[in-house]
Prior knowledge:
alpha/beta; Rossmann fold; 7-stranded parallel β-sheet; 11 helices; globular; disordered C terminus
Amino acid sequence: MSLTGRTVLISGAARGIGRATALVMAAKGARVALFDKEASVAATADAVRAAGAEAAYALGDVSDAASVVAGVAALVEALGPIDCLINNAGITNNIAPLARMGMDAWQREIGVNLTGPFNMIRAVVDGMAERGYGRIVNISSGAARGGLYNQVGYAATKTGLLGLTHNVCLEYGRKGVTCNAVLPGLIGTEVVMAMPAEIRDAFAGATPTRRVGTPSEVGHLIAFLCSEEAGFINGAEVDIDGGGRLNTMALGSRKELLGKK
């Protein structure tokens, strides 16, 4: 499976799944365009170049449509038309019970996690359709199906992202553009690895695989969905959670949840 000759645009590429995916794409031969609000995304671009692939980056906020349009235009000028879009940018830092979720926090969550992918898709999808080829992958979450305690904004936006995925599929599938959603479970990003070990290990112990997933594993799944071989996969919701969605948290004993044998 090769992505040689393809230009892949990744939002939220400064770290975590976005950075890992950029390096996987580089290994597959793609040109890698990076969009992030953090200046540290430059380090991801440097890592992609060190891996032997072309890279460019633009700074901007996915929730700001004008920022997205300007950033994408700059990246197209640097690397050529966008063939694949990975909507990875997202926030999870608004943690509060529903009754105490502030309106500003709610709106920010929607802006980044749902309006952001909408803005990114609008910036590239018509060009994909005109060329008869496009791959869009939206990074949702297992929380889209089961909710997430005290994270009503995050869960709601990740569910909304599934609806956006379905509509892009319906509207653009006949034009050679696919749109799929990836639903990660507990993945060993910088944020997850900074959790208290006992909490992280308890959640990992509740999955059938008994471990945390790696960002590069998610990156390889995304790369496949961007390939020629995945052309008939469209509107799908693909879990990558080690089987964690299968009620093991409810069925496991306290001893098992703490990772003890």
